[in-house]
Amino acid sequence: MAPRSFWKGYLKLSLVTCRVSMTPAVSESGKVRFHNLNRKTHNRVMSQYVDAVSGEQVDDEDQVKGYPKGEDDYVLIEDEEFEDVGLESARTIDISTFVPVGSIGWIWYDRPHYLAPDDEVSAEAFAVIREAMAKTGTAGIARLVMYRRERAVLLVPKDKGIVVWTLRYGDEVRDAHSYFDDVAKEKPSSEHLAIMKKLIEERTAKWDPSMADDPVQDRLLDIIASRKNGRKAKKPTEQKPEQPSNVIDIMSALKKSLAAERKNPR
After folding, report:
1. Which residues are CB-neighbours of 13 under 8 A, at least 6 positions away?
2. Does the predicted model carry a pTM greater than 0.85?
């Protein structure tokens, strides 16, 4: 059963409009979560906002966002003002521009969401927009109020629906040249490169979601299950990782690596 949508509104391209619903494409509900407890009483520990000077608790209605303009001097912005600045894009995804699919670097991608028609009447208009993007190899760019801020979003056709990616703001992405320009331009030898390519081929496999499993969470679940049953959890066997060292003879290291891979294939 599909999860409930967290956003409903309209998808618009010129004069073509349809009702749509959106759901986050990823979920953290499966993560193991813990409460902070008082060790002596086992009661939950509650967090509170307190005044940094007086130390007194501040109620929700007395809290307000403030932008610092000087020492101990702030510009106050009310919640209503945050909502007002993005009213036009609060409920409508109006596609203003199209770009070739894959032309935006992965570093700009933030959160993925699934977009689908909200009713049967909207299905045809939705399909026309989706298929037109798929046939032309393009993705749409629009602006939308999400997570209390207006942000650019990228619409990519996917199967029968559309994936909506929120994009990072321009001031969030650092220029790669600042970090890579000082890296020395080394051209590897053809012999080294040939063996490294073979080593990569030995480790190449078809993508499987299990590659992104969380082994730490699995061990935590084992501990929890053991405690529930009143038994002691087995301590994982500790394997000391090999200490890396500066490789002097690259060819020798590559040959040994390739031989090890073929002897013990993954």
Report:
1. 94, 95, 129, 140
2. no
